[in-house]
Design a protein that fits this description.
mainly alpha, transmembrane helix, 88% helix, transmembrane, 0% strand
Length: 190
């Protein structure tokens, strides 16, 4: 029960991470866990024996109560009650021990999975932060390129307008010059 309380206690993340990493990777802890698994097999055998003994003592008590002779002596009745109590106590203790071993094992692996998930989340979050910083740089670079392209486009449009205006002015001046000189050009105007 103390182990269970330590497992579920609200420890800081760094402490819990080190503790569970030690528990899951240490060869000494692995040998202790192997020994505990073997002992829980024996506890399972003891549980089966305790259940059988409890059923047998209960059956003997019922037979003594309903049997032909009955329980005439208070000491005999107390003896049956004590045997029944001890059999039930052993059944509950071994059963609780087996149940607690299952709960401890499952809780340990759930918390270990939680720690691994938190590590993956932190790793993805840091990668996302790095990626978003790179994306922000790329977006700023693309905005600069877009602004320069738009500036070039405006310059090009201005140059086209100036070129059209100069061509129109040239055509007008050429036409006036031809009229003044009296020569007519056979070129077609655009």
């Amino acid at each position: 029960m103390a182990t269970f309380c330590v497992l579920v206690s609200p420890l800081p993340y760094a402490v819990k991470k080190r503790l569970f990493r030690f528990l899951s990777e240490s060869p000494v802890v692995a040998k202790i866990a192997y020994g505990l698994k073997i002992s829980f097999i024996f506890v399972g055998i003891l549980f089966i024996d305790a259940v059988q003994r409890m059923l047998r003592v209960t059956a003997e008590t019922e037979q003594a109560k309903t049997g032909g002779q009955g329980m005439q002596d208070i000491r005999t009745e107390t003896n049956y009650a004590a045997r029944k109590f001890y059999a039930q106590r052993n059944t509950y203790l071994t059963g609780f021990c087996l149940f607690l071993s299952l709960v401890l094992t499952r809780t340990f692996y759930i918390i270990l999975d939680l720690i691994h998930t938190q590590e993956e989340y932190a790793k993805l979050k840091s990668q996302n932060a790095i990626s978003s910083a790179d994306q922000n740089k790329e977006i700023a670079d693309l905005k600069k390129r877009l602004a320069s392209a738009e500036a070039k486009e405006r310059d090009f449009e201005t140059l086209k307008k100036q070129s059209k205006q100069q061509a129109a002015e040239y055509d007008r001046l050429a036409t006036e010059l031809n009229k003044a000189n009296g020569s007519v050009s056979d070129k077609k105007k655009d």
